[in-house]
Model the fold of this input.
Amino acid sequence: MIPDPDRPRRGRRRRAAAPIAGLTAIAFAGCAALPAQPTVTIEDVAAERSATISSQWRAAVAHSTRFVRERWPEAELEVAFDRWVPVEAIDEARAACLSETLGREVTVTEASGLLQVGPGPISEPAWTATVADIGCGLSVQPWSSLYPFGGPVERQWVREQLVVELPACASSVGARLVVPDIAAAVDGAIFPTSVGRSVSAMQSVWPHVEIVGDPLVRARVLTQCADPGQVLLGLEPPEIVP
Done:
């Protein structure tokens, strides 16, 4: 996740919505007519995620560039996005980036996760390793599927899956889908959520919908109808456009 030092951390506000009883697979009481086909694709979601993360990355680059320029006017920060790495492997990835940039070994202290940089040439400016580390921190980015996206395009995609695609899929196997709280179901697909007595969070719409039908039919819905939450969870890390 790309840090923004100038932006205070804020808790995510969840929109409350009163449960709507009797929400069927065909229509929502009191709502406008639903589209016959989804208007937002999963490719649109990927594009929105790319735009979001790219904007944050460029802001982080601008902030870091200003910091280096003000602190060490003679230094030059070289930044180019290289790749995403699993969050649990980020220390090793930064160490490898630093080793290549500095031309000497950089290791990770196992106990603390701190990077240990070997001594450089006497003629090397004192800021060299620090500036290189800033650049590597922007070059390799830690990826986690828990990254909090959930932009308007993504929310619309989930909503259309809930009111168009999933009801149609359920109907095709002889079931009916009821969504008591559309906002909660959308949130459940985008953000890992603990439901009921479960202590582990899951990213899924199934805890937030009711599948009407006999046990065999319900099982078919769960296995044959794509869960929007799992589809989002399976998306590749978004492209960062400098």
Summary: Confidence is low (pLDDT under 50) at residues 3-33.
